[in-house]
Design brief:
globular; 190 residues; 6 helices; five-stranded antiparallel sheet; 21% strand; Aminopeptidase; three-stranded antiparallel sheet; 38% helix; alpha+beta
Length: 190
């Protein structure tokens, strides 16, 4: 199958324009990591994560659905001032992604983390999520993390981030969408 044009890197003037747009996304540096604007070349890592069935709600996903998710979060920077970061090691090796954004059905902004399996258990998700949470609290009064009840590691991370379960939000989602989900609140009440 031929590589879809949408996941091929731009060239020439379009590449320069894309670079200028990415420069508007806040870069966050931590002790071991860099959270930066996503690039087209980051899509394969994102697709690897979402094409696996590892507790991601609704997954695994098709390549087209993964592309729409990827671009939705990137568009969030222009539409809402929040969005997707690619998380890299200091040598620019992609290890995962942090989202602070909105999907179609979200009632409020969500802080989420997606990491390649080979980088699990090394504290990268915690380090990156703490940094994104801190910036998020500067931008927003409150946001949530939606976590599958069976995803023990993500539930523990949300708790370590200082978030508290929101029973009212969980009940609202259960009623509206018919599914049990843990809603972890960061910041003040909605």
């Amino acid at each position: 199958m031929k590589t879809p044009r949408c996941i091929q890197a731009p060239a020439g003037a379009a590449a320069k324009a894309a670079l200028a747009h990415r420069a508007s996304v806040p870069v966050i540096e931590t002790a071991r990591l860099r959270l930066r604007a996503p690039e087209v070349g980051d899509f394969p890592a994102y697709a690897t994560i979402l094409s696996a069935d590892e507790g991601h709600m609704g997954g695994p996903f098709s390549p087209e659905d993964i592309w729409y998710d990827f671009t939705n979060y990137i568009a969030g920077w222009m539409l809402h001032g929040i969005g997707l970061w690619t998380v890299t090691l200091n040598d620019d090796t992609v290890v995962g992604f942090i989202t602070l954004g909105l999907e179609w059905e979200d009632q409020e902004p969500e802080l989420g983390w997606l990491f390649l399996p080979e980088y699990h258990g090394q504290g990268y998700a915690s380090e990156a999520a703490h940094a994104a949470r801190d910036l998020g609290l500067d931008l927003l009064q409150s946001f949530v993390s939606y976590v599958d009840p069976d995803n023990t590691r993500s539930n523990r991370l949300a708790e370590r981030l200082g978030a508290a379960r929101d029973p009212a939000a969980e009940a609202s989602i259960a009623t509206a969408q018919g599914e049990a989900i843990h809603v972890w609140r960061h910041g003040g009440a909605k």
